[in-house]
Amino acid sequence: MDDLERERTALLLFDELADITEHKREAWIAERTDGNLPLERRLRTLIAAERRANMRTGGAWLDEAQEPLPARIGAYRITGLIGRGGMGSVYRGERITGDFDHVVAIKVIKPGLLSEVLAERFRRERQTLAQLSHPNIAHLYDGGETQDGSPYIVMELVDGLSLARWVEDNGPAREDRLAMFGAICHSVGFAHRNLVVHRDITSSNVLVTADGTPKLIDFGIARAPDLKPSTEAARVPSIGSLSLTPGYAAPERMTSAAVSTSADIYSLGKLLAWLMSAQDAEFRAIIARATANDPDDRYLTAEALAEDVEAWAKGLPVAAMEGGRRYVLTKFIRRNRLPLGIAALALALLVSALVFALVANHRAQVARVDAETRFNDVRALASYMLFDLDDQLARVPGNTAARAALAEQAQTYLSALAQTPGSAPALQLETARGLLRLAEVQAVPLKPNLGEPERAQANLDRADALLARQPENEPLAQLHRGLSATHRGLILLHSETEENAARAALDNAEKSLSSAPVAGLGDAWHEAFNGLRLAQLELADVSDNRDHLPELLKRADADRADWSPAYRESFEARRHRALLAYYQALVFSDSDYDRATELHLAAEQLYDVLLAERRDDPLLLYRAAWNGLDGFAVASRAGLENVSGRLIEQAAQIIDRLALIDDRDDAVQALQSNIKEALAQNLRDGERFDEAIAVSRDVVALRKAAADELGTGGALGNLGFSQMILGVIARDAGHRDLACQSWKEAQESLRRSEATGAILGFHKGFMPGIDSHLKACTSGQSIHFPMR
Amino acid sequence: MALDDQDASVAELGMRWRNGDADARDLLIARMLPELRLVAAARLRGEANSSLSTDDLINDAILRFMRIETISLADRAHFIALASRIMRNVLTDHARSKATDKRRHHRIELNTRIDGGQRVDLEYLNFALIRLGAIDRELMELVEMRYFGAMSIEDVAIATGQSPATVKRRWRSARTWLADALAEPVDNG
Questions:
Q1: Would you say A215 and A209 are in contact if contact means Cβ atoms under 8 Å apart?
Q2: For residue A681, which of A741, A719, A749, A633 has the smallest C-alpha distance?
Q3: What SS3 class is residue A71?
Q4: Could you report the per-residue pLDDT of A564-618, keeping only the tens digit for each?
């Protein structure tokens, strides 16, 4: 079949496909393409092309009906049609009442195109947009909903050509193009400072009036699909997904990530590349910086881009080529920038901008009489950012990176204040608290974190230094010394696999906390102590000392007797109980599988109740996933296939949800590997060996990448473990060679782990089993005996 | 061109062309071409502030071309079909001449109002149509009639002698094929 014939056949099949009902299509395609893969691929390309076109035109693909013009919309009489597109129609209108000549453009979004969530957001955003008054931005006057529920906006009618036509028709000189780009950047920057992102800057969304003034249209109307994937709204194409223009849209717009101002910087970069035909290295560096794949690598602001372009035009050095002071400065300021997708983050941006201004002011006017007041303002704001705001953000998934940026920002202010000569001990304590919170977001295991143990430990060191200056018996200092030691213990345990050092740190923590007066500290003390108990339980579990668990759990139970009735009912206290229930199950995980399964199911119920209250609490999701994974392990050992299958599937769902919304989270990524590993074992149990081997190989690859990158005893141990599992699955599938080969590799990985002096007891426990299996491999004996 | 004197013969030429007379078709083209060029050129000079919108373009020309003659529905459809072809050539020529006198490629966009005001690059569209013509000539003509002639499904049905349902279905295929073909080279720079 040559190309032409294939095209013809594909088109014929596509034609006929219109009559085949959806559920019969796959079978029909298989039958009619009859194993001709290129033909099938071509047909599927066409099907996909139609789907895309449908998205773009809002499903009006074959609907030809020319709607009549509405007589009026809101307070406007419709006098003509300006254009019609996938999103809806744009009309020309005049004010019905009022004596002045007021001609406007009215954009009506098709009904049903916006989900409720988006429509609500559209309503809210209208307010912001209406206040956006700039000579280079088409003004938004009004908005509302038509009688059939279509949202509409009334904007300034711009009489002009698109930028594309302006360039094409006028062939403007280089200086004019530069001036045009500068004006566009400044208007975009103006909008960004007002927390509005354009989202779809292209050469057709910039109009140029007869006197050469650019006017940006459709500001903020394009909407990114930055909603939670599980909501209904995600299935309805958002305005943004309908309007983004190939070649201009930033990569993150395609992947549903929250859209920030940097998406506009990207589009501006594309626009610049199109507008100027320069090829020199400086220009290319500017384009590369503006359109970097990682939003963090782009220019921070539209103005910074404009400045660099100006510098380039004047032959001055451009920032995009430098790695020096200017870069450092932008990097520092970059920390201010946060995604604007979520209202809380917009708030955070405002707060951090405000604090920034206050600090700058404070430094400049430190000698003034009101310095004291400003000082306290800054301190109050920084502490608000670090604690109140961070607590709120912590409940919203996907915010780990934003929280770190926020904490770091606040920390900068606090440190600056703490270094001011004569700062009070109370302020130093507050700074220490801030550092602890920062370390927590950076790397304290068992909670969503960024996986940056070195930075976290450095911050713990700084906190400890500040705490050491506090009086020995100061209750808050004692409490925070305890917190710091607990964090350190967990980091040592998980990131460094230094069990003994971790144990020492936790012992210190217990000493500090026990000596602190409970009465004066209240719930904060209980919180800290609960954290310590969990860390101790974790240490016992990970260091393969599960026989210590019952004793620790007994002590945790005793702790609860001291809780105040109010604290007992708090969400945190109930969450703590659910976590304890999980460890309760671990007690029996090696001895009584049925009992352990029951306890995991009991813990699951506790998590379900809590998740019903806060369905997106990252910590809960994370721990619920762990419970599912460990529950799966014991249930499958108990032979309860139904239960184990359900548990691992749910765990996978939960962890996927978490990973999807927060891919910067190190802990989540590690757990994802674990769950995948379990999935492989479950497939093995279902005798779906080929799938099991495939998944298992994936896990080995993931672990190998991690081990190559980190080279730590823990990472190597994980690699060895997954290689061993691959071997076991291969053995059960009857592939003796693959089994023996995998065990050989597992042995090597575990020996390397052991050589670092930081092998986990759990991993070490498998070494004799692997050795004896390898002996059986070489001597040709049966390899079908337990690993441990 | 003084059309008034020749109205009768336009109808007559149309009749002969429909009966398979190729000379009659060439004569018709020769008559329509200057008119269509005029309309296209006026639009392309940027008298309107948006991209080309071919439905007005063709309608203006056809109406002026046949303004006195009471012409049958079938003839009208055939004329528009023919005019669509000519319009494609006029516009493509224009796009090419424009592309050669500038340093780099300048887009001339066709506002396919029939597709909800989408804009497609004329030159890309032309290349795609040449390919489509090699695969299925009828589909290419269908696109010409719809995009360049802004003909309704019903008009195309009359001009091609197919049922509107068939035209609609084939139009779906043609358009999908084009959407795929045009998706590849889309690059706004």
A1: yes
A2: A633
A3: coil
A4: 888 888 888 888 889 899 999 988 887 888 999 999 999 999 998 898 887 767 7
Q: What is the pLDDT of residues B170-189, one digit of tens each?
A: 998 998 898 888 775 433 32
Chain A environment of B122 (Cβ under 8 Å): none
Look at A60 and B136 and tell me if their CB atoms are within 8 Å.
no
**CB atoms A246 and B168 under 8 Å:** no
- Is the reported ipTM for this assembly greater than 0.95? no
Whether B117 and chain A come into contact, CB under 8 Å, resolves to yes
Asked whether the beta carbons of A771 and A785 are under 8 A apart, the reply is no
The contacts of residue A65 (CB under 8 Å, 6+ apart) are none
* Ramachandran bin of B8, using left for φ above 0, alpha for ψ from -120 to 50, beta for the remaining angles: alpha
Q: What pLDDT score does B128 carry?
A: 85
Q: Judging by DSSP bridges, how do beta strands B109-112 and B118-121 pair with one another? A: antiparallel
**What angle is formed at CA B183 by the lines to CA B180 and CA B184, rounded to 5 degrees?**
105
Side chain identity at residue A688, one-letter code: R
Give backbone dihedrals phi and psi of A734, rounded to 5 degrees, phi first.
Answer: 90, 15
Report chain B residues whose CB lies below 8 A from the CB of A52: 179, 183
Q: How many CB pairs under 8 A join A and B?
A: 97
The residues, ordered by sequence, that sit 6+ positions from A550 with a Cβ below 8 Å of its Cβ are A587
Ordered by start, the domain boundaries in chain B are: 4-183
Among residues B22, B152, B21, B140, which one has the least CA distance to residue B88? B140
Smallest Cα distance from A239 to chain B, Å:
16
Q: pLDDT-based confidence at A254, cuts 50/70/90?
A: very low
B176 and A53 in contact by Cβ < 8 A? Answer: yes
The distance of B16 to chain A (nearest Cα, Å) reads 33
Closest residue to B104, CB basis, from A203, A270, A277: A277
Q: In chain A, which residue's Cα lies nearest the Cα of B52?
A: A165
Determine the Cα–Cα distance for residues A276 and A180; give it in Å rounded to an integer: 11
On the CB side of B169, CA atoms within 13 Å amount to 14
A133-142, A381-390, A763-772: range with highest mean pLDDT: A763-772
Q: How far apart are CA B19 and CA A773, in angstroms?
A: 88
B84 in Cβ contact with B148 (< 8 Å) = yes
